[in-house]
Q: What sequence folds into this?
């Protein structure tokens, strides 16, 4: 394989990622707001992660150390994404979960670091939350590595 054919193949793989800068296509029950409305609704940090697919610095989220029973919701629209029983300490510096609540997230392939990764986003508002890796604990072996700023924790009453 020549350098030129390698770079052409790499560009072909990256092309779908460039076309997917927008959130996933609209579906029933989907929250769609203008960019101005999102900026008004979210903090600058939340906007950078949820709407621009940014990443917060590791070990900065208070949710990383959250141990109470409760539910983790999308900071963009309030959809419940994870139960506290799904959380585990991955040692990565971001809140991590081994699965999601049914129907809570959608996924797509992300080529931003050249090698493909699986990005996941809120099923209701399309907000970017993080990436899924295959190095999590049983029973799934998955690690949903979430930006803490993209979540709101609601503690269980009682």
A:
């Amino acid at each position: 394989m020549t350098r030129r054919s390698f770079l052409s193949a790499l560009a072909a793989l990256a092309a779908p990622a460039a076309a997917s800068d927008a959130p996933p296509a609209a579906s029933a029950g989907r929250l769609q707001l203008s960019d101005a409305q999102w900026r008004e609704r979210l903090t600058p940090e939340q906007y950078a992660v949820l709407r621009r697919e940014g990443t917060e610095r590791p070990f900065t989220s208070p949710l990383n150390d959250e141990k109470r029973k409760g539910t983790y919701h999308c900071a963009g629209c309030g959809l419940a994404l994870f139960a506290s029983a799904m959380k585990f300490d991955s040692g990565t510096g971001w809140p991590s979960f081994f699965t999601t609540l049914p129907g809570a997230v959608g996924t797509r392939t992300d080529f931003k670091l050249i090698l493909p990764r699986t990005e996941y986003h809120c099923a209701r508002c399309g907000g970017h939350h993080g990436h899924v890796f295959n190095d999590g604990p049983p029973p799934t072996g998955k690690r949903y590595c979430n930006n803490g700023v993209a979540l709101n924790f609601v503690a269980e009453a009682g």
Observations:
- The domain at 70-158 is CATH 2.170.150.20 (Metal Binding Protein, Guanine Nucleotide Exchange Factor; Chain A).
- Strands lie at 70-74, 80-83, 87-88, 96-97, 105-110, 117-122, 128-133, 143-146, 151-155.
- The CA atoms of residues 141 and 154 lie 26 Å apart.
